[in-house]
Amino acid sequence: MLKLRLILMNFLEYAVWGAYLTSMGSYLVNVGLAGNIGLFYAVQGIVSLFMPALIGIIADRVMPAQKVLSVCHLIAGVSMGAAGWYGMMAGNEVDFATLFSLYTVSVAFFMPTIGLANSVAFSGLTKAGLDTVKDFPPIRIFGTIGFICSMILVDVTGFQYTYAQFFVSAIISILLCVYSLTLPNCPTSKKDNGGGIVEALGLRAFTLFKNKRMAIFFIFSMLLGVSLQITNGYANPFITTFKDVAEYADTFGANHANALISLSQMSETLCILLIPFFLKRFGIKIVMLIAMCAWVLRFGLFGLGDPGSGVWMFILSMIVYGVAFDFFNVSGALFVDKETDSSIRSSAQGLFMVMTNGIGATIGTLSAQAVIDHFVYSQSDIHMQLDGWSTSWLLFAAYALVVAVLFMLIFKENKATAANRIQQK
After folding, report:
1. 145 located within any domain
2. The pTM is what?
């Protein structure tokens, strides 16, 4: 019964995100805000610099995580609904500042819910005597399924090009707001460890940087986080661009970019099941390296493919995305959970979000916007634009490769953990 409850939580959690994350770029292009796509995705990273950590502190010290999750989704849902309402009223005369402000409030309260949902799941499974490494991934799969369902819904309804995608997200968020109140209680930490203001504010998670191995892990999480939102923001506009080329105008991919991209999330559902095996057999270093190499392929195949004879490269790119995302995000969250004390679990998950979806994603989306503006949107000829897209994707692939090599050389796995894994083999 517990697993079913957590499954529904994860389904709704990621359905909220899937309603707009991969399709918002195409809506922004349609209302003349193509040059601001990077800002809309970067603000997710900017708010993740502080909101997950602050909300995590509240969940650790003040209010049970499941109740904080409910409040966050209430505010996020109402704000996203307001963004949809404004988009509907404004039509093609959308004011950047107004839409951006409403959207920012929504994501400011949504981003912390990812870490909160993990904390609720980890807490519930631990209290039930279950193994988080073994039992969490099959539950987390349904988050990806929820994401896919939202993506396909906005694709088949045509919402991927309109403000209506915001309404879909808002409705699901409000549903989760109510459902969160029924989830298992996550007790706050009442322990007084005499740690002064750091302990009182629940900021002890930041002391993890005193541990060299954890500091290196968080730094590389940030560097890999640079890649996280690039395809979410630009894959849909990129693939949709092919509609303006006669050779590709009638291809399925060019006309149903969101459905094609949903293969990425379908791949996730399978890759999540591989995580327990890979983590226990190979350890966090190898798993993270696999994720980094998958990002190289994700970007590189986009740079070389097309919706026609090269569509197989797009499909392969979607398949490797499951490895790229899950082996980093889910394994990283499990690693942080195992390496931190239960009294700072939510704060530590918040810190992981700060480094990945905060600093990393902000740098990544703003840098991607600059690269794509230079190579793509500065061109008026459609073929020159496609050449620019190819160059951009290959540059992103080169960056991911450099990060992978550096991580391989610098990060050292815990010797005791490695020895224990070898014995298990």
Report:
1. yes
2. 0.77
